[in-house]
């Protein structure tokens, strides 16, 4: 829901700000298409957003945040309210500033009508109140070898979904029968209806899947696919390799 800017220009003139609006929701991408991208979402009273814990950078005085992560077997399935925080403007318009947990890009994906998207584990950041998200279980054969994990998030409705990536995020718009092959650990999001199958990678391509075998996702258009440039597991391995061994180890 649209809200007036209650603070004026919050950022230094040197910071690039890309403003946008979808179905009444106003937001600003801060340093878009970079490794330090953030999003400021403007809120009207009664029109909250839901976000994963830990992604909030700052908020205006009028915003109230409720909810905490509840871990149980039941919360693994169905609607995501138990795993999200609700951010609401109280009495007067406000804003929240959100960012991914790692260096990387952030994108706003607009939904309307019957459009649905599927989001890889760990890529979802937040959504507006017109969007419903549900954690769904992937096909076992697919998830066994997929870096995206056993569960993915399905988002549908009318509003905006914000997703984060490791490194820059790229989008492909596939035409009918056009094929795109992506290493599983680089998949961020894909649209409903696109053809999707898991297959062994060609020589030279490798996934960090638990099976140890190189597996890739093969998408067939029409549809849209978002991917990020870096592999979080490979970054973790590199960081670990730079840590000196403990004395006496």
From TrEMBL:
Coiled coil: none annotated. InterPro entries: AIM24, AIM24_sf, Trp_RNA-bd_attenuator-like_dom. Gene3D superfamilies: Mitochondrial biogenesis AIM24. It holds the Pfam family AIM24. It comes from the Eukaryota. PANTHER family: ALTERED INHERITANCE OF MITOCHONDRIA PROTEIN 24, MITOCHONDRIAL, TRYPTOPHAN RNA-BINDING ATTENUATOR PROTEIN-LIKE PROTEIN. This is Uncharacterized protein. It comes from Gracilariopsis chorda.
